[in-house]
Amino acid sequence: MGDFTGLDSVDVYAYSILLIDLSIAVVMISGLRFLTGLVANVDSAEELASRDNAAFGIAMAAGTVSLALMLTGAVSGELGASYLEEIVSVGSYGLLGLVLIKVGRLIQDKVLLRGIEIQSQIKSGNVAAALVDAANTIAIGLILRAVMLWVESETLSGLLVVLAAFVITQLLLALVTSYRIQVFARRNNGNSLQQAFAEGHVALSIRFMGHLIGVALALTAASGVVAYSEQTLWIALMTWAGVTLLFTMLVSLLAVIARNVILAGVDVAEEVDQQHNLGVAAIEAAIYISIGLFFTALFA
Questions:
Q1: Which of 162, 163, 154 shows the shortest CA–CA distance to 75?
Q2: Are residues 142 and 104 in contact, defined by beta-carbon separation less than 8 angstroms?
Q3: Based on the structure, what is the number of domains in the chain?
């Protein structure tokens, strides 16, 4: 058989591993539908088909992309020494990804955006809330994918590093969220960004989404700056955390400079905050994402 197909035993094993990884990925992604419904406390089929809830669909789509990003990090790298080892390794990281998506959404609801129940808003069909949820979920997926590629171990220590990176990620996303809340309040006589999201302000949510994803893209580049070392594991992780903090601040600073040039003569606060200008909000979001992409090209 090997002579006929041109494949030796090593090739057959490698392709078998790839088939196992693909099967695990399909199962995990399929299971996300039920997890999304569980998080929102709804029946996913009813929300998608009966109620035509676009907000729920956006949140579920973002969760699918986020989980896929994490899984690409989990399946990359060296093949497992055995079929069982590969199943355990990829399955563990996949399950961890599912759990972290749920935890990340709960943190966003209860900590990052206090004053608005994002999942309840999604259940009621609020597209703006769904975009905010999507921003957080995809940001988590991007950063954890980079961490999984950075970690050169598929042991328990590797899982612990991923968990630690998740905590650091949530702190940085909280920093970005706090910045956006304060900027909105300053521009709008102390009004609440959370309340604006609850009222369905899609333009604000688009800008917010661009900012979070731009930062997440930049943070993926930190893994290319800091070398992973099993011997000095926690030093490497703390160094990675320091670089990610620096990159978070640089993305916001450079995006403001670029925005002032690209949107010169445009009153961004008036257009986006007051007039719900989707076009200007999309340009702002694109600026943040573009800066993040440049970081990945330069440092990753």
A1: 154
A2: no
A3: 1
Q: Percent of the chain scored above 90 by pLDDT?
A: 38
The pLDDT-based confidence of 145 (bands split at 50, 70, 90) is: confident
Residues whose CB is less than 8 angstroms from the CB of residue 1 and which lie 6 or more positions away in sequence, other chains included: none
Task: Name, in order, each residue with C-beta under 8 angstroms of 7's C-beta and a sequence gap of 6 or more.
Answer: 15
Q: Which of 236, 240, 80, 228 is nearest to 154 (CA)?
A: 80
Q: What is the pLDDT confidence band of residue 264, given thresholds at 50, 70 and 90?
A: very high
CA distance 93 to 161: 12
Residue 253 in 3-state DSSP? helix
Contacts of 263 (CB under 8 A, 6+ apart): 280, 283, 284
- Distance CA(93)–CA(282), nearest Å, equals 34
Q: For residue 239, what are the CA distances in angstroms to 168, 197, 227?
A: 12, 35, 9
- 263 compared with 224, residue with greater pLDDT: 263
- In the chain, DSSP assigns E strands to none
Give CA–CA dist 45/47, Å, rounded. Answer: 6
- Max mean pLDDT among 48-62, 84-98, 187-201, 229-243 falls in 187-201
- Is the per-residue pLDDT at 227 higher than 90? no
> 142 and 220 in contact (C-beta within 8 Å)?
yes
Give the separation between CA 56 and CA 227, rounded to whole angstroms. Answer: 39
Mean pLDDT of 122-148: 90
Cα separation, 28 vs 25, in Å, equals 5
| pTM of this structure | 0.85
Of 128, 152, 61, 161, the C-alpha closest to 101 is 61
User: Domain span at residue 189?
Assistant: 2-299
pLDDT number for residue 1: 45
Q: Which two tokens stand for residue 279?
A: 């076009």
Q: How far apart are CA 298 and CA 300, in angstroms?
A: 6
